From TrEMBL:
Ranges of Polar residues composition bias in the record: 1-12
Organism this protein belongs to: Natronolimnobius baerhuensis
Annotated protein name in UniProt: Thiol reductase thioredoxin
Gene3D superfamilies in the cross-refs: Glutaredoxin
Pfam families registered for this protein in UniProt: Thioredoxin
Length: 119
């Protein structure tokens, strides 16, 4: 079962991270949701694996939509967003990029970053 909001008319934040299946899907998520945190990750990346439960928790605890992009499956997408290392986290608010961080950040720092743009 896929947890996606393509079919819904309201842009309520999903309680679990969404796997992005291409650039159109990512652009749609950014356009339809107020705050989107995009995780550019790789399955072989140790810090990415450490970040996964943090992002799972934030998806359920915050109003942000968490989107996950596997850079090995979508290298052109990662390149077009300027991703040079993984994990890279890009935060969008109202369709505009407001922050970008490379590396696994602690949950409290990510929560603060998200909440700054959801209030």
């Amino acid at each position: 079962m896929t947890t996606d909001t393509h079919s819904g008319s309201d842009a309520q934040s999903p309680a679990k991270p969404l796997e992005v299946d291409g650039s159109d899907h990512l652009e749609d998520l950014i356009d339809r949701h107020d705050v989107v945190l995009v995780d550019f990750f790789a399955t072989w990346c140790g810090p990415c694996k450490m970040l996964e439960p943090v992002l799972d928790g934030l998806a359920g605890e915050t109003d942000a939509t968490i989107a996950k992009v596997d850079v090995d499956q979508h290298p052109q997408l990662a390149e077009s967003y300027g991703v040079r290392g993984v994990p890279t986290l890009v935060l969008y608010a109202d369709g505009e990029q407001v922050d970008q961080q490379t590396g696994a950040l602690p949950a409290d720092q990510l929560r603060t970053l998200i909440e700054t743009h959801t209030e």
